[in-house]
Amino acid sequence: MKKPALLFFALLLISFSAMAQHEPWWKSTVFYEIYMPSFKDSNHDGKSDFKGMTSKLDYLQSLGIKGVWLTPFLKSPKVDNGYDIADYYQIDPDYGDLKDFKNFINEAHRRNIKVIMDMVINHTSTECKWFQESRKSKTNPYRDYYIWSDQPNNWDSFFGGKAWAYDSTTQQYYYHKFAKKMVDLNWANPKVKTEVAKVLRFWLELGVDGFRMDVINFLSTDPDRKDNPVKKGQQVHKFDVDQKGVKEAIGMIKSVLNEYPDKFLVGEVGSDQLKVLKQYQSPKMLDVPFNFNFGSIPHFDAHRIFRELKDMERQMPGYPTLFFGSHDMPRLMSRLANNDPDRASCLAALMLTAKGVPFIYYGEEIGMTNIIAKDTTEIRDIQAMTHYHLARSAGKNEKEAMQVANDNNRDKSRSPMQWNDFSHAGFSDHTPWIKVGQDYRHTNVAEEERNEQSLLHQYRQLLQLRSNHKALQFGEYKYLKMNADCILFSREYQGETIQAIFNFSDHAQSINIHHQKVLIGKTDLQPNTFLIIQGNKKIKFNHD
């Protein structure tokens, strides 16, 4: 080979290497959401804590997790389980102290696990110093940190009821999109932006690798607070979300992160419109927004799942997010898998091989299921309790009101992680079950570890597969289609092609793969099973 040709190929290899190096780390990362109160209790007080969580980092590493998302852990009265922050600079004592947090971060990083933290900047607790000062007088320096009015508009709270609460000290109303003790910050005030930037830098200096921004498009940035329209008796949230100035605020947040290398910004954008989500995704705003259209499908529907994948590919310019569970929705096993571990495994395989950033909700890997409250003493969730009281006020009896509460109860997916026993310290005496045929069994990590055919082992294999193949981390779709109730796609990156088939039909499918390499699965696809292969030759159904 002549020297110019050798030089060309050398430059080509360098170019490919540079491409790989320039891919952001979060594209290759599978995140694991830890709901702070429920993961691992080290001191037997019924609450998870940083020491307990640190003790389980080896478990997460063995699972193949490269990133952890922590729900709020800052000092809070926990009206909404930490999403009501009283002090942005203190660890809540339930979870430990700053030393425990630093140790957790250091130990996670030692295992090559990134850590992002939930940051709530739409509102604070009413116990926050800023609000305590704000309510003292109309001339207090902190007064305009929040939104006050003599005459409230018609805005409703997203938790039910009106979004304005009367404060007798200054005889004005304050605005709260959620619970009355979760008061909205006034993002039209530059001082609020300065305070938030200071908070972000504090945690970035301590080593967090990014933030998950709670309800980030709900920020109140526009002082022109028009009444929302009402259609068919339901309020349309037209003027209280996606306000003028929200994008500028997110840009400010991203600029703070850009002061530190390789940080990740994911946002919860409260919208079911992809055209809204994509407005917030750019190098100057969010790296990725959560897409709840995909993540919160209420019931299993393979065609709906396929349609959401297709819509994300067509309508979202950047990388999407992939998840089937979170602390705000019923569990995957109960909601989508109908207590079938095979279907749960197939859904997990889809999430971990499709194009996007996957987020596993704690306990999904062992098939944890929903818990149901028998009465109000078993409810912690402020949203559920608000709906319960509204139902009772509307004349519903106790049984009917409990049904309304459970329909809106986010506690159902927040029971403690089951490690090697079935205790539920701090919760009611419920034990999740998985239905297998006509039998029922407990689910916990210890039992799943002993069973090589378990859901946990399937998750490990899938995470290892994703880690071993760049096409499953960075690849673009060559095709994405549906055939005979099977979802099929092919992803390609730097010459490697991975093809995947997920059989969600009620009968077996025989597949001809032309002697390509099977990475996981079998060519005789049973219902609710999957096949991942390496190679770019066309896959054919034998009945085609």
TrEMBL record:
SUPFAM superfamilies: (Trans)glycosidases, Glycosyl hydrolase domain. It holds the Pfam family Alpha-amylase. Residues 33-414 form the Glycosyl hydrolase family 13 catalytic domain. Keywords: Plasmid, Signal. Residues 1-20 form the signal peptide. It comes from the Bacteria. InterPro entries: GH, GH13_cat_dom, Glyco_hydro_b, O16G_dom_2. Belongs to the glycosyl hydrolase 13 family. This is Oligo-1,6-glucosidase.
